[in-house]
Design goal:
alpha/beta, Rossmann fold, globular, binds nicotinamide-adenine-dinucleotide
Length: 278
Amino acid sequence: MSYNLLKGKKGIIFGALDEKSIAWKIAARAHEEGAVFTLSNTPVALRFGEINKLAEQCNAEIIPADATSVHDIEHVFNRSMEIMGGKVDFILHSIGMSLNVRKHRDYDDLDYDFFQKTIDISALSFHKMLQVAKKLDAINEWGSVLALSYIAAQRTLVGYNDMADAKALLESIARSFGYIYGREKFIRVNTISQSPTRTTAGSGIKGIDGLLDFTERMAPLGNATADECADFSIVMFSDLSRKVTMQNIYHDGGFSSMAMSQKAMTQYNKCLDEEEPA
Ligand SMILES: NC(=O)c1ccc[n+]([C@@H]2O[C@H](COP(=O)([O-])OP(=O)(O)OC[C@H]3O[C@@H](n4cnc5c(N)ncnc54)[C@H](O)[C@@H]3O)[C@@H](O)[C@H]2O)c1
C-alpha cells in the first residue's frame, strides 16, 4: 500500500545488487511512495546486469561507482543533482563486503590488507559519502541519510569476523557526522540494525541457516524481513522522523533485547536431551 510518504523527494540509493538485496526492496518501496532517485553500484555489480530491471521498474538512472573512491562518489552526487535538477533529500548506504569472510580467514588469522578493504568498503565509504555530500552541499535541509548495520557491532557473533569492527565504525560515523550535519544543515544521519537476512552478503555469514533459526526463535516478533526493512527505511526517509538522528535503531523483532526465549530454550533443551545416553 502506498501512503505517498516520499512524494516530491529525491534520493540516491547505493547497494542494490539483485532482487534479494535490502537496497533493492528499499528502492522499490521508495518508488511506490513517490520518490525519484538514482541507483549506484560497482562496475562489476552492474556487469552482473540485474540492476537494470530495478532501474526500469523505478525509472531510475544507474551511476557506476566504487564507494571507496571519493572521485566516484563526487561523480554520483554531481550526476544525480544534474539528472534530478537539484539537491537530494535522502541517501541509502547499503554496502558491505569482507574478503576475510569470503576467503574464510578467521578473526585470529586476519589478512590485514583484506581487513583494510573491509573497513574501507563497509564503513569509511559512509564517511566519504557524507563528506562529499556536505562539501557539494548536495542534501536539502531536513534530509535523511541511512546506512545498514548489524548487531555484531555491539555483541560478538561467531563468524561475523572483521565485519563486526566495520559495523562498529559505521555506527560511530553516523553519530559523529550526524552531530555536525544536524547542527549545520538540519540533516539527520542514522543506522538501521537489521535482522539477519538471506541476501548475497547475508549468505556469506558463517552458519547463516542456524543463525536465522536462532534469531527467529529468540525474537518475540520473529526476524525482520528485507521488505519490512524497506517499510521502516521509508519512515526514516520521510518527514515523519524529522527529529531522529545519530541513532542506531534495531529493526530485529526484539532480538537485541533478549537473552533467552521460551522457543530457543525448548530447542536448546532438545539438543541436550539428544546428548543424554539412552
Ligand atoms: N543480509 C544481512 O543479514 C544483513 C543484516 C544486517 C545488515 N546488513 C547490511 O545490509 C547492507 C546490504 O547488504 P545485503 O544484505 O542487502 O547484501 P547485498 O550483497 O545484496 O548488498 C551488498 C552490496 O554492497 C555492494 N558493494 C560491495 N563493494 C562495494 C564497493 N566497493 N562500492 C560500492 N558498492 C559495493 C555490492 O555490490 C552489493 O550491492 C550491508 O551493509 C550489510 O552489511 C545485512
